[in-house]
Write a structure and sequence with these properties.
The complex is a heterodimer of chains A (570) and B (607).
Chain A: H1 2-7, H2 10-59, H3 62-67, H4 70-112, H5 114-121, H6 123-161, H7 163-168, H8 172-224, H9 230-272, E1 293-300, E2 310-317, E3 322-327, H10 333-339, E4 348-353, E5 356-357, H11 363-368, E6 370-373, E7 382-383, H12 384-388, H13 397-406, H14 410-415, E8 423-424, H15 433-446, E9 451-455, H16 463-476, E10 481-485, H17 489-493, E11 497-502, E12 505-510, H18 512-518, H19 520-532, H20 564-569
Parallel strand pairs in A: 3-10, 3-11, 6-9, 9-10
Antiparallel strand pairs in A: 1-2, 1-4, 4-5, 7-8, 11-12
Chain B: H1 2-12, H2 17-32, H3 35-67, H4 76-129, H5 132-137, H6 140-182, H7 184-191, H8 194-231, H9 233-238, H10 242-267, H11 270-295, H12 300-341, E1 363-370, E2 379-386, E3 391-395, H13 402-409, E4 417-422, E5 425-426, H14 432-436, E6 439-442, E7 451-452, H15 453-457, H16 466-475, H17 479-483, E8 492-493, H18 502-515, E9 520-524, H19 532-546, E10 550-554, H20 558-563, E11 566-571, E12 574-579, H21 581-587, H22 590-604
Parallel strand pairs in B: 3-10, 3-11, 6-9, 9-10
Antiparallel strand pairs in B: 1-2, 1-4, 4-5, 7-8, 11-12
Classes of the chains: A alpha/beta (570), B alpha/beta (607).
Chain lengths: 570, 607
């Protein structure tokens, strides 16, 4: 430029201009690539983190999920991952370049004028002190913010899941109040954090400005006393600004770093959570199953509960047997069947399949060998076909249909406008309770397991349909071991064995006829059921044949007094 | 996944520029609404900026003093005093900057968080007012993503972007004044790059906006996937489906990653392109300046100064445009939040809706037709009465419309023809709250909330005393079962009432309905999961509960039907028979047939 102006030769000027633009274009390309690739990298990290946590959550035991709240877990997988990503994307890169710049310019300053450099660098420890206390103060606050966000999210999540109840009870004001409390707490936490911010960042700027001030003060005095030239001060100050720039960047990064650190801590909590039920080293594959399932003196309590749920449960199901499990609400029926696929580990004793302790088997092979119908089955959004094929996505349409026919679901599915391709929503909304249970039964049957478990899975199905399901199951259950929790006596009576639980103990075990003769509790159940359904005069008679009089006597009054044993014993 | 691609296609021809501007205006309105706070913050922004701008001026003064040759005559001590004075001034300026900066960070930060809090509350309150149809059609995870993830990007913009752009604007104005005063020709030439800069900003931001929108949508999908899979985790483990689920989740996850990368590919082109333009501007100044120098219309010094100013001129422009591009992510998030806030409320109270006083409970369905999909009616001209204080048992096969009747009585949906009335009031003419407050509902699947058992029973009646809660539980026979829980009424339940069996949950749901002391009770056959002995206790409680109330019971059990004053048989969306159990049996019609099939037959099969 100097040359061009001196010689008034415009071609040199043009050339310089072209060069300037050319260099800038090169820089632009590199700048773009840097921005782009750092996003690719950070998004890749976020992707991996989410997948890792998702996978972990999928494998954490029931005991973990019993206590976890969906809204909070979701906050971790989305929001916390995002906080970490934001830092990884820009932060790491900036951190590296800031540190390089900082050290490089410090060296240059020291070599230019070590006295001035020391004066200027004197503010650096203060800056780092501010940064350090900032990070220490802010990190737990960021953790708290994420926790409060999780709590807020949980209120929303439950509200959405229970929308119908919220509306039915006109509880919107109550819900809004719950949300407001959580929301206010979050806002307050943020504002507290901002208070810390407002006293830290500006202080860092202030201290670095003081550095400039010191340089000019000391340097100015040296100029006045003739030890330095003005040019030297100005050059020195230029390099000082190179030193201060990375410090500002570090100040900005401190917030990102603490936030990412707090969030990463929350992610690691999930990643490090102990998977309580896991494969033992050298666990066996459960091969062909014969189907003998035995409980040997099994004790169990849920984590965090004082009261044991099962206290020395012992019984066995022989291959091909259908075992009905009866008992009062809370007597431990669902717990018993949750132990067979090893959703929980027993506290004491053992559960065996064909003589193998379930803890010696791989979880995958164990669970593939068992078909299970939950009490409150969850269907997934997607087609009915996909839901039935949940455990065997590659099943053919014919197989899916066969399973549906056996579960008495085929007729109503066919009557839907789009048949098996009909979409069901979250939790299977759009279907009645009975329809969902039947789809869940079809889902379990399709897996074709040797062991089948029905946890009160026909409770919402009308009696006639249940009869048809039972009739179809009769054929299907040949050669399979089945466990059935049922409230209806009609179901229990058909079982090859009835196990009655009370307070976590087996109080009766045998066939219907045997138990009628030997077990008072069983007789009581039989009586109460028949009274409850207002059936048959000969309720307690040993020869139970309710179809003697299918149209019951309308004048019969139900037993109005509740069973004292039931009321007192609970 | 499929939905994602479809949405991508839809995006191609959506969001006209006007809508975008409207979204931006609406977002900024949250800030301008708080004019006082904003103004105060601006004062401190100006103070802070002034502090920053004055510093170099004071330093210039110091350098001038040092350079000043005539100062050599002044005694050393006086010059040192003068230096100290300058330093004191400098310190003053820095302290001013510090104060301005501190207050500004605090004011803008707290204001931003307040705005976000308000936005979240608005989302939640809106969700409370939406009708059941909305919940049938929207995934909870997506709504949650709007509340958490979309407000997060909005927050980033409001707190950082807003602050930066004010400072940048101030800087820009100052440098423009200096440039025009110094040499208006060169200043105008420099301004030549502003139009391409604006075009570039628009080009990039409009592209970035669409892509950010996809990124917001896909993170919503990740969230939906997650919410559903967490709900079904027991199924996933029972069916050993975890690998396949991961695969599915991974697809949604990858779609979000790719959408973000693609949005950044566009937006990260911005800063380098702006730098390039700045170089072009410098080149123009140099070239044109050289020409002007040759023509004698500018001095070399002016050109040298201009080259520095062009840098200062571009920094704020670059900042502004960067904020503008960043804002696209926030606007994409804001669009989704506003979409939800603008969702039409289907069942809003009529403007002249009256609050129902204490009702008697005469319920009437008058020629009601309704379908969730209007094309496929579920109820076809249903007429029926429930006299105050009586119990009607609804009977019919799955799909006959029983649950729909219950839904309409609670006005979860509006009828498409006919009317549902309570004490002669059309439900559409009364406030939903006054109606529902006098109703108690026990759904087939009892939904409980996390929290204590007592809190759950108190749900419809938050002010109820402990005694009242206990009395309600006793009335339905739930007391003994609750007392057997580890902490009794204070036992904390997990999500959806986790830790309890369905039977226990149903009892608590019954107590919850009982506590409301409703005039109208809706019971969706809630006895199915309760063991028979407990059920006897429950039956006695239910009888007490039903006594004197208008009750609609969706019945499967014989005992429930027997106790009803009237049985209504639904088939195909209409009432085909009604009367007492005995009358209907004697009539030998559809009910007798159903009865035979369901109950006669049931116990008749041999063991």
């Amino acid at each position: 430029m100097d040359d061009g102006v001196k010689q008034l030769d415009l071609t040199v000027v043009w050339q310089s201009c072209a060069l300037l633009v050319g260099v800038a274009a090169g820089r632009a390309i590199f700048g773009f690539l840097q921005g782009y690739w750092s996003e690719v990298a950070s998004q890749g990290v976020a992707f991996d983190l989410r997948n890792t946590i998702y996978d972990k959550l999928q494998h954490l035991s029931f005991s973990y999920h019993d206590q976890a709240q969906t809204g909070k877990l979701m906050t971790r997988v989305t929001s916390d991952v995002e906080q970490v990503r934001q830092f990884v994307g820009v932060g790491l890169l900036q951190l590296a370049s800031a540190l390089t710049l900082l050290i490089g310019s410090a060296i240059i300053l020291l070599r230019m004028n070590w006295q001035l450099a020391l004066a200027a660098l004197a503010v650096v420890p203060f800056i780092f002190a501010v940064l350090g206390t900032f990070i220490v103060r802010v990190r737990p606050r960021f953790g708290e913010i994420q926790r409060k966000l999780g709590a807020l999210n949980t209120v929303l999540q439950e509200n959405l899941a229970g929308a119908k109840v919220v509306h039915a009870f006109a509880a919107e004001p109550l819900e809004s109040q719950r949300f407001t409390t959580a929301n206010r707490a979050l806002v307050a936490e943020w504002q507290g954090l901002i208070k810390v911010f407002s006293t830290s960042f500006p202080l860092i700027f202030f201290f670095s400005n003081l550095g400039t001030l010191l340089v000019f003060w000391l340097g100015g005095a040296k100029v006045i006393t003739g030890q330095m030239t003005v040019g030297e001060i100005i050059a020195f100050n230029l390099y000082l600004s190179l030193l201060l720039m990375p410090i500002f960047i570090l100040g900005g990064l401190a917030a990102g770093l603490s936030r990412a650190g707090a969030s990463a801590g929350r992610l690691f909590e999930v990643m490090d959570a102990e998977i309580e039920v896991h494969d033992r080293p050298g666990a066996l594959e459960l091969g062909a199953v014969r189907g003998r399932v035995a409980f040997e003196d099994v004790h169990f309590r849920y984590p965090g509960m004082d009261k044991p749920v099962l206290q020395g449960v012992t019984f066995a199901a022989e291959p091909g047997e259908t075992v009905a499990i009866l008992g009062r609400t809370g007597s431990g029926k669902s717990t018993v069947i949750n132990l067979i696929p090893r959703f929980y580990d027993v506290g004491q004793g053992r559960v065996t399949i064909d003589g193998h302790d379930v803890r010696d088997l791989t979880l995958d092979s164990l669970r593939r060998g068992i078909g299970l119908v939950h009490q409150d089955p969850v269907l997934f959004s997607g087609s009915i076909r996909d839901n039935i094929a949940y455990g065997r996505p590659d099943a053919s349409d014919a197989e899916v249909e066969a399973a549906a026919i056996a579960a008495q679901a085929h007729d109503f599915i066919s009557s839907l406008p789009e048949g098996y391709q009909s979409l069901v929503g979250e939790r299977g909304s759009g279907l009645s309770g009975g329809q969902r249970q039947r789809i869940a039964i079809a889902r379990a049957l399709l897996v074709d397991p040797r062991i089948l478990i029905f946890d009160d899975s026909t409770s919402a199905v009308d009696t006639a349909t249940e009869q048809r399901i039972q009739a179809a199951l009769k054929k299907l259950l040949v050669g399979r071991t089945a466990f059935v929790i049922a409230q209806r006596l009609s179901t229990a009576r058909r079982a090859s064995r009835i196990v009655v639980l009370d307070e976590g103990r087996v109080v009766a075990n045998g066939r219907h006829e045997e138990l009628l003769a030997s077990s008072a509790i069983y007789c009581d159940i039989v009586t109460s059921q028949l009274m409850g359904d207002d059936e048959a005069a000969a309720a307690a008679a040993p020869d139970l044949d309710p179809d003697v009089n299918p149209v019951p006597n309308p004048n019969r009054v139900p037993n109005p007094s509740p069973d004292p044993a039931a009321a007192g014993g609970a | 996944m499929h939905g994602g691609f479809q949405r991508l296609a839809e995006l191609a021809d959506m969001a006209p520029a006007q809508d975008r501007r409207q979204t931006a205006r609406r977002l900024l309105a949250y800030l301008t609404e708080r004019r006082g706070q904003l103004l105060l913050a601006m004062v401190f922004v100006v103070l802070g900026t002034a502090g920053q701008a004055l510093g170099p001026l004071v330093l210039q003064r110091v350098t001038n003093q040092l350079v000043d040759v005539s100062a050599a005559a002044v005694p050393l001590s006086a010059r040192l005093v003068d230096l100290r004075l300058s330093m004191a001034m400098l310190l003053g300026v820095y302290v001013l900057g510090l104060l301005g900066f501190m207050v500004q960070v605090y004011l803008i930060g707290t204001m931003g968080q307040e705005v976000l809090g308000i936005m979240r509350q608005q989302i939640f309150d809106k969700v409370q007012r939406l009708s059941m149809r909305f919940f049938d059609q929207h995934e909870a995870g997506d709504v949650m993503s709007r509340l958490v993830n979309d407000t997060d990007v909005i927050g980033n913009f409001l707190t950082q972007g807003a602050m930066q752009s004010v400072g940048a604007l101030l800087g820009l104005v100052m440098i423009l004044i200096v440039m025009f005063v110094s040499n208006w020709r060169l200043a105008l030439l420099t301004c030549l790059v502003i139009p391409p800069m604006v075009l570039l900003t628009q080009f990039i931001s409009s592209r970035a906006r669409d892509r950010y929108r996809v990124a917001r949508e896909t993170v919503g999908e990740v969230s939906s996937n997650l919410q559903e899979d967490l709900g079904g985790i027991r199924e996933a483990q029972a069916f050993a489906r975890t690998d396949r689920n991961l695969e599915r989740f991974s697809r949604a996850n990858a779609a979000n990653r790719d959408a973000n990368v693609s949005a950044t590919a566009v937006s990260s082109a911005f800063s380098p392109a702006a730098e390039l333009l700045s170089a072009v501007a410098t080149a123009i100044v140099l070239g044109a300046g050289g020409y002007l120098v040759v023509q004698g219309q500018a001095s070399v010094g002016t050109i040298a100064a201009f080259v520095l100013w062009v840098g200062n001129f571009f920094r704020p422009i670059q900042q502004l445009s960067a904020v503008y591009t960043q804002a696209q992510a926030a606007l994409a998030g804001a669009e989704r939040v506003f979409d939800l806030l603008d969702e039409r409320i289907e069942l809003e109270d009529a403007p002249d809706a009256v609050a129902l006083g204490q009702i008697r409970g005469d319920v009437r369905f008058d020629n009601v037709s309704f379908g969730y999909d209007p094309e496929r009616p579920v109820l076809k001209g249903l007429s029926m009465d429930i006299a105050a204080g009586t119990t009607v048992a609804l009977v019919g096969e799955t799909g006959a419309g029983k649950t729909t009747v219950a839904n309409l009585l609670q006005r979860f949906y509006d009828v498409q023809a006919g009317a549902v009335t309570v004490d002669g009031h059309d439900l559409r003419s009364v406030t939903a709250r006054s109606l529902r407050r006098q109703m108690g509902v026990v759904p087939q699947e009892p939904f409980l909330f996390s929290g204590s058992v007592a809190g759950n029973i108190r749900y419809g009646c938050p002010d109820a005393s402990d005694e009242e809660v206990r009395a309600a539980a006793e009335a339905v026979g739930a007391d003994a079962i609750i007392m057997a829980l580890p902490e009794g009424y204070d036992t904390e339940l997990g999500e959806r009432g986790g830790g309890l069996s369905i039977g226990q949950r149903q009892l608590i749901a019954l107590a919850r309905a009982a506590l409301v002391d409703p005039r109208i009770l809706i019971l969706d056959e809630a006895t199915a999961n309760i063991d028979t002995r407990t059920e006897r206790i429950l039956q006695a409680g239910l009888e007490k509960l039903l006594h004197g109330r208008t009750s609609l019971v969706i019945a499967h059990r014989l005992s429930t039907i027997r106790h009803a004053d009237k049985v209504v048989v639904l088939e195909n969306g209409t009432m085909i028979e009604s009367g007492s159990h005995e009358e209907l049996l004697a009539k030998g019609g559809r009910y007798a047939e159903l009865y035979q099939r369901q109950f006669g037959d049931a116990e008749a099969l041999p063991a």
